Amino acid sequence: MINVNLVGNPNTGKTTLFNSLTGAHEHVGNWHGVTVEEKARIYKYNGQEIRIVDLPGIYSLTALSYEEKVAVDYILSHKDTIVVNICDASNLQRNLYLTLGLMELGVPIVLAVNQIDKRKNCKIDFKKLEELLNIKVVYLNAGDKKEVRKLNDAIIELNSKLKNNYIVKYNINYFDKIKKNNEKFNKLDKIIDKNIVKNEDLLFYKIKILEDDENVKSLFNIKNNFDCVEEVAICRYSKIEEIIKSCVSASGKVYGQSKLDSIFLNRFLALPIFLLLLAGCFYLTFFSIGSYLSDGLDYLLQKFIASPLINLLSHNFGSESFVVSLFQEAIIGGVGSILTFLPQVALLFFFLSLLEDSGYLSRVAFVFEDVLGKVGLSGKSVYTLLMGFGCSTTAVLTARNMEDKNSKIKTGLLTPYMSCSAKFPIYAVLGGAFFGANNIFVIIGLYLLGVVIAVALSYVLEKTVLKSKEQSFILEFPPYRMMSFKRTFEMLWLNVKLFITRVGTLILAMNIVVWVLSNFTFTLKFVGVGEGVSILETIGKILSPMFIPLGFNSWGLASALIAGLVAKEIIVSSIAMFNGVEEASIESIQSSIVLSTSAVYFSSPSSVISFLVFCLLYFPCIATTSVLLKEIGKKWTFIGILIEFLIAYLTAFFIYTLGRCFEVFGFIKVLLVISLILILILSIRRIYKIFKKKKFCPYQDKCGRCK
Description:
alpha/beta, Rossmann fold, 4 domains, 6-stranded mixed sheet, two-stranded antiparallel sheet, 30 helices, globular
């Protein structure tokens, strides 16, 4: 078997190449954490088995973050393994810095030059490049499976040479100046333990020590700094400049720059544009296109599956049978009500993929870097939090690439405050019943509320118990480009398949459990024939009084919240079951929650908003909790869950109280009272400042400002 390590800078097409070589469907993205750990796959080519490992993107062999350390450690521990070093043809100058580092290490290399942008901004003399580097160079399009055959041929050819005792040698004479003139370099022979390092690796480790590489210095127990980073970098870049002048003739615009950046990165326009794009995505997902598609799917499910199946079961078991009740309420009413949201889930992931592929989301990270820096987070946190809009569980995993422990803990704790895709069925069904078309403003408000509370909580943690250290954040702007329809379709299919699998397994199983608990008593008698109070109703009635201050105190809502701990989608299906909704349609559920005779109902718009806010902020699902336990530990997971519940309760209480005031006293009166309170608070604050200044100013009798 031939072992290969796939190495390259972020955004060079590394994971795309991995997918083309192996037929895999790994996620391709423009941010940190996409490849958090090495991914390996075995494939066959011309009768040869090749095992290729996709390592996290790195810029050099000096690790500055967790994900870079994963890659560098793997390369160092597999020095004899063939490395496919992928570079971007339109950014070859920067990519070659890593190539030189690999040459210094002495690993066998095949250089794959990827043409990401089909508009050729540069012409490369590949034969000259091969001569200067003494490396086999393959020019290809990483997404074209036919073109990657050339790369496989080069891998097999190099492997054959290595089997015949081929010795890898590279010309790294660009360090000759350091060898001759740097006294620190010559002293390293006495410091480095020859029992740890082979003679052929000696130069590599000397250079890494001069660069103050902490990992290498710790290997030899070196504590002092050498401060030669700039000197080493100048040597490498002088060599790269020489190569570029000999091999590359560039034309056109510089990589990553665009006239669109003057708009999307404008200090005044960046945030409004981001919010407008987000609002547009939500409108198309929850209303316009998404609503029509969901209604169409709902019609098909009712006409061709639900009605025929219930009629068949009623004919065989009788309409009052618990079998009919199970299928009608738990399976069709419960699972069907969630399945109708499939088109909207697909649309949401489509728009996220579109924003990602276009190169825009990397700009979003840049826009929020300064803002998040003030609350103890970095631009890396943006990636995790944005992924939280899709799924909190997978988003938390991307936080592991942060080198600062406190930032990692904070980012993990804040991710559940983002509205994941599992929550929007709750917003769409419950909010739509009371607000109709205006529900879009409620949904946008809920998404923004989660972000605002996360930022505020991060600020509090930063100033108290989780102060962050300064972090490195290297951000690359990929060029704006059209999405790949093939890759988008693959990613959509994976997410749709995941949603259907989730509905068909976890949610189905939980719905059946909820149905059993809500239809049988503690003595296992069927409630459907008038035999007492169900298990779930008994538990719900015990818990429901605690929600009276929040405006919802029915046992059904308390029970739905408990079920929602497994998966948030189950809240909607649980409400459908408790209200005895026979049709798996959104309209049927919405009609039931406004009736006071239903097990679950809302008496006013303020009570439904309070419930939506509580669903947004209360405990994360079990899957997210389990990941948090693994990533940030038991202590902070428990503290985070406790904080979430307190914030959810207090925020829902405040919003419900404010909403009831608007409903009872009118909008104008309440607004006037709030304005007067704010004026009073500001006045008191101003008086306090003046008093404090007069009291402590040593020049108050001379300057006259305090008089």
